[in-house]
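Thanks for the sequence, V.! I ran UDP-glucose 4-epimerase right away. Repeating your input here for the record:
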Amino acid sequence: MAVLVCGGAGYIGSHMVDELLKKGEEPIVVDNLRTGHKKAVPAAVRFYQEDIRDSGAMDKIFTENDIEAVIHFAACSLVGESMEKPLLYLNNNVYGMQVLLETMVKHGVDKIVFSSSAATYGEPQSIPIRETDPTEPTNPYGESKLIMEKMMKWVCLKHGVRYVSLRYFNVAGASEDGHIGEDHKPESHLVPIILQVPLKKREAITIYGQDYPTEDGTCVRDYVHVADLADAHMKAINYLRAGGNSDIFNLGSGNGFSVKEMIDAARKATGEDIPVISGQRRSGDPARLVASSEKAEKVLKWKAKYTDMESIIKTAWKWHKNHPNGFCK
Ligand code: UFG
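Predicted structure:
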C-alpha cells in the first residue's frame, strides 16, 4: 500500500520521499509546484501535479491508488507573507486540509502525519516549550497550522482518522549525499542565507538585532536537521500503524543556538570568512525558541541525531555548493 505525500516536491517533503524509499515504502506525491520542485522527486515515484484544494483531482488520486496513510506538507509557510496575505493562508492551508480530510474520510484512509510548527505557540511563556504550553499564534501562518490541528482532532473523533501532528522548530540541512536540499525563492531562512555569502551571492549576512536578552544578544533557535525530521515522520507513521492514539509532538534538537553561533558554525563548515552586518530587529521575532522534545523521545522513540550545528551546516553546504541555483540549471 502507498503513502501519499502532499507537498512531496518541497524542501521537507522531498526528504520524506527519500526516507520512505530507503525504508522500502511506496510514496506517491501530490504537489502543485507553487514552491516545490519537480526535480526534487525521483522519476520512479508516481507524481501528480495537482492542488490539494481540488477535490476532483484528490478523489481521482485516492481512487487510482491504494493509499494507506497520508503525510501532509502541502501548505504556505512564510510568516511574513502570512501577515500580508492572511486569506491566502487560510484558503490554501485550512481549506486544503478540509478537502484532504474529506477525501480521506470518503476513501476510508485513517492515518495522517501532519507538518505543524512551533509558530502554533506564539511568544513562549517558558523555555523549553512543551506541547502542553499555551498556543497563542502571533501570525496567520501559525494560526492556520493550529486550526488544521483542530480540524484533525474533530475528524478523528467523528470519523476515526488518527493523526500525529509534528510541531517543528527551525529546520535546516540537506540530505547527506547532497542530491536534494533547500531551494526557496526568495530565500528567507537563516542557514541558506548565511551560505549565500560563501556562494558569493551576497557580500555579508545581516544579523537582525543584537540587543536581545540572550547570551550574545542575538536570537536563539532550536535547529533540527531535515533528515531527523523525516525519521520522525517515519516513526509517527509506524506509531499510527501500531494503533497509537492521535497526538501532538514537538520536534527540535533540544538545544538553542544564537544567530552568531550559527554564523560561526558556518565559518567552520565552509572554511570561509563570512562578514556580518548589524541590522534592525525583524518584527515578531521572539528572543528564544527552544523545544522540549521529551515527549517525542518517550512516545515515538525519536531523538535528533544531528545536534552539532557544524555538521548540520556541512550537509546544507554540500547541497548549495554543488547546486548554487538550487533545482534550476
Ligand atoms: N535571521 C537573521 N538574518 C537573516 C535571516 C534570519 O539574523 O538574514 C535571524 C532571525 O531574526 C531569527 C533567526 O535568524 O532570529 C532564524 O530565522 P529564520 O527566518 O531562519 O527562522 P524563524 O525562527 O523566523 O522561523 C522558524 C520557522 C517558521 C516558524 C517559526 C516559528 O522557519 O516556519 O520558526 O516562530 F513559523
